[in-house]
Structures are given as C-alpha cells and as structure tokens.
Amino acid sequence: MRKITASLFISLDGVVEAPDQWHFPYFNDEMGAAVDAGLGAADTLLIGRKTYDSFAGAWPDREAAGGEDAHFAKKLGDARKIVLSRQNLSFTWRNSEQLKGDFAEAVTALKNEPGGDIALSGSVSVVRQLMAHGLLDELHLLVHPIAVRKGMRLFDESETTLPLKLLSSATFSTGVLHLVYAPAESTTDATYEDAKSHLPQDDQ
C-alpha cells in the first residue's frame, strides 16, 4: 500500500496559514533538502484547490524560466497532481486531475494503486480529512521559532483527542524543528495518582 505523507510549515503557536508571510527567513539548505525529500520525491501530489491554484500559478512559469528552481518545478510538473474540490475544475498544468467520488473511498483506492509515495504540501483541509479518516501515514511538521499570533491553526477544536507518536526529529541551524509523526493508538486513562510516582523523590 502506498504511503501518504503531509508536510507543513508551522509556527511555534500552531499557525499554518500564509507561511509565505513568515517562513522565508528560515529557509536554508536544510529545509530545502527536507522539502525535496518529501514533496520532490513523491510521484503523486494530493492537494486542495487553493494550494493547487497557488502552485499552478507559479511553478510552470518557474520551470519555463529555467532558473535555480527549474529542476524542482519540473519535478512538480511531472508528478501526478490530484486536486480535491467541490467544484468541477479544468486544468492547464500537465498531469492534473480532480479527485472524484467519496473522499475516503477515493483516497483508499489511490493508496491501493501501484506507485510511490503520495505527498501533500499545505492543503490543511485535506490533511484534516485524512487524519479524521485514519488515512494519513506521516505528518511532517517544520516548526518555525516564531509566534505568528494570528491565522488558521493546524488542529481545529474537537471533542476527541488525536494521539500521535514521534518517528524522528531534527534541529536545523535556523532553529526550525523537523518533526515527523505517525498516528498512535489511543492513550490510556491516567490521573495524577498515576503520574506522581515519576516525580523526583527526596533522597533524605
């Protein structure tokens, strides 16, 4: 089964909205390598319409311009791009199509197809749906050492918790943390009575 990974730029206070307004001062070779290892290595992209419109409005021109980012732009252009939207869409960027049918059923079928990893960048609404249906395999968070203090957070309010387990972590020279999580089993019930034995004890 194919693996679905989501990568997000996120602030210290959990904001994921409009990273173009705050994350570029932290973009270095380390972050570039992390982005390429996720987004650039996948053969399929699953993205929301707003993210797609942003990508399609920039990357084809960057590929055509032949600049420093043309190689990465070509990777995105060559990848299969599956767009989630309630509206009927038409596409000009090559290898683009719309996700059809029930979300959970369509994504499950996509995971069962032959091929490499499926990646997301941004597309918070899609990430939330994947997590709600248990279809997201890895969540890559590039945590920036800045409190944006306004904008949409990754996790919306809910009556249920969402346990995760840490798979790996790395600290970049900019202070950005690259944290990789996977879904975890539900946490067991515990109280302060269970926790207090882990407090430091008086040796005297």
Automatic annotation (TrEMBL):
InterPro entries per the UniProt record, alphabetical: DHFR-like_dom_sf, RibDG_C, Riboflavin_Biosynth_HTPR
Domain (Bacterial bifunctional deaminase-reductase C-terminal): residue spans on this chain: 2-177
PANTHER family the record matches: BIFUNCTIONAL DEAMINASE-REDUCTASE DOMAIN PROTEIN (PTHR38011:SF2), DIHYDROFOLATE REDUCTASE FAMILY PROTEIN (AFU_ORTHOLOGUE AFUA_8G06820) (PTHR38011)
Protein name (Swiss-Prot/TrEMBL): Dihydrofolate reductase family protein
